[in-house]
Design brief:
The structure is a single chain. By secondary structure, the chain is an alpha+beta fold. It has two domains: 68 residues, 434 Repressor (Amino-terminal Domain), CATH 1.10.260; 119 residues, Jelly Rolls (Sandwich). Helix content is 25%, strand content 26%. Strands 1-2-3-9-4-7-10 form a seven-stranded antiparallel beta sheet, with no helix packed on it. The chain has a three-stranded antiparallel beta sheet with strand order 6-5-8, with no helix packed on it. A hairpin with an 8-residue loop joins strand 2 and strand 3. Helix 1 crosses helix 3.
Length: 204
């Protein structure tokens, strides 16, 4: 059993139930505000329904909390040291540890790193981003755009890509990475940098 991943998923339902009770709302109220059925919400809170981004994003908006308050790593266990990964000047916190399938990370870009020249990389897979704080500059193939807090984007990682701060402020974002074909179903488009070409997918 993957203890870290299981603890993360097991904690989602109780957090959602606690948020709903704190706000004094019923399942019917939340269903009306999100478009998610009462039965699905009930199963999600009880742990009988697997949490997905398509369910958690509208719930985070209704409860007015950041997504990482709902999906957070388990409390530190002194027997299991949790260490961040430093990669290309960024600090990456793994939120899941199972081999294969979708992987979740929280990434922090320290302030003052927007002056770097983008060094794009490409690899197999599919990635989804959600900005928590700050402004994230994304270079994706021929496109160069900025995601604001609360905005999300998804893309095929075989397209050359790079992330960095859009200004001198720190940036925090969540990312989900999965094998090719595992998509998050976020559908919208940003402004094009180059006319006449298809743009990467983005959600606001």
């Amino acid at each position: 059993m993957d203890n870290a991943a299981d603890q993360v998923l097991a904690a989602v339902g109780p957090r959602l139930r606690a948020l709903r009770h704190e706000r004094g709302t019923s399942l019917a109220d939340v269903a009306a505000a999100t478009g998610i059925s009462v039965s699905t919400l009930s199963r999600l809170e009880s742990g009988q329904r697997k949490a997905t981004l398509e369910l958690l994003l509208p719930l985070a908006r209704v409860y007015q909390v950041p997504l990482d308050q709902i999906v957070a790593p388990p409390a530190a266990d002194p027997r299991v040291p949790v260490s961040a990964i430093r990669r290309n000047g960024m600090i990456v916190y793994p939120l899941t540890r199972r081999p294969g399938g979708l992987q979740a990370y929280k990434t922090v870009i320290p302030p003052g790193r927007d002056r770097r020249v983008p060094d794009t990389k490409s690899h197999e897979g599919y990635e989804w981003l959600y900005v928590l704080n700050g402004r994230l500059r994304v270079v994706l193939g021929e496109y160069d755009f900025v995601l604001e807090p609360g905005e999300a984007a998804e893309f095929d990682t075989r397209v050359p890509h790079w992330f960095g701060g859009a200004d001198l402020e720190a940036v925090e974002f969540l990312s989900l990475f999965g094998p090719q074909g595992e998509r998050m179903h976020v559908r919208a488009r940003p402004a094009k940098r180059a006319a006449g070409a298809d743009a990467p997918l983005r959600s606001e």
